[in-house]
Amino acid sequence: METSISIGKISKKYGAIQALDEVSLDVGRGELFGLIGPDGAGKTSLFRILATLLLPDSGTATVEGLDTVKQFKEIRNIVGYMPGRFSLYQDLSVEENLAFFAGVFHTSIEENYRLIKDIYVQIEPFKNRKAGKLSGGMKQKLALCCALIHKPKVLFLDEPTTGVDPVSRKEFWEMLKRLKMENITILVSTPYMDEATLCDRIALIQHGKILSIETPGNVIENYPKTLYAVKSDNNYRLLESLRKETAVESVYIFGEYLHVTFKDKPLDIQGIEKIKPGVEDCFIQLMKRGELGILNYEL
Fold first, then answer.
1. Could you tell me the residue range of the domain that residue 94 belongs to?
2. 34-76 pLDDT, tens per residue?
3. What's the pTM value of the predicted model, to 2 decimals?
4. Is residue 295 a part of any domain in this protein?
5. Dist. CA 103–CA 267, nearest whole Å
6. Which of 159, 186, 214 is where one domain is finished?
7. Contact residues for 140 (Cβ-Cβ < 8 A; gap 6+)
8. Are strands 154-158 and 185-190 parallel, antiparallel or unpaired?
9. Which parts of the chain fold into alpha helices (H)?
10. CA 120, CA 141: separation in Å to the nearest integer?
């Protein structure tokens, strides 16, 4: 696979906070690549560097072979960027926002309408409504249309589904699959672990460090322990009890269950059963293995 995005030992610090710590990864052309991690992991800093909005302290990055520092003007013409916070003109209507961004890139809505059609038809009934008056899901769709209006080669989406209802989240990822068929490289970040399984490959990031780069399937297959689930009438009391057991390696709350791994043999606990790990479990295990101080992680 040809490389579209190449990141080599990128570091960024804000005062005493190390936002990115020698991050390196490559994204293939036409790949849907997910950057998965909680708030504060460094995802937004990396996106801003790739979108040429922020300078790294050290390291290099290229987008379609162009250096993000030396060739930032060229990069801005070939990428679409959708920041985590809604950043369109709230006093302009849907149609006016689209026309404005098309004009910035010397194109028109009609010229690339095919690319945004599936998305735009959902917001077209509200084309005269001010952007600030749209629902979260509609704002998201408008922002994606504006990011696509100039037919970018690379699309950066920074937590695009945060705060959006489940139906809109599902629709959004269906749109991304269709855009991938246009051979657009998509780098998307998300704090939602369930969205990781929808990517071709994922990088798990925490405290500015990459913990793993793999396909979602391989991340799960590489989970090194047998995972168990158990619940009780009082999960917090059970959690505290299991934390005191020397046989327990890790335990954390996962919805209405506790997920548990053992150092050797499992304890004889009523209702305990083996389960298949998810990406969340793998992420927690990698954080623990990386000695990041999270032994009992509560979701």
1. 3-214
2. 999 888 899 999 999 999 999 999 999 999 999 999 999 999 9
3. 0.84
4. no
5. 65
6. 214
7. 160, 161, 164, 168, 172
8. parallel
9. 43-50, 72-78, 94-104, 113-123, 136-148, 166-180, 216-221, 235-243, 279-289
10. 7
